[in-house]
Amino acid sequence: MTTANSSSKVVFGIDIGGTGIKGAPVNVETGELLAERVRLDTPQPSTPEAVGRVVKELVDQFKWTGAVGITFPAIVDKGRTLSAANVDKSWIDAPAEEILADAIGLPVKLLNDADAAGLAEVLFGAAKGKAGKTIVITLGTGIGSALIVDGVLITNTEFGHLIYPKDTIAEKYCSGKVKDDLDLKWKDFNPRLNGYLQHLDLLFSPDRVVIGGGISKKAEKFIPEMTGLRCEVVAAELKNDAGIVGAAVEAARACGLI
Ligand code: BGC
Question: Residue 78: which domain range?
Answer without folding.
Answer: 10-114+241-254
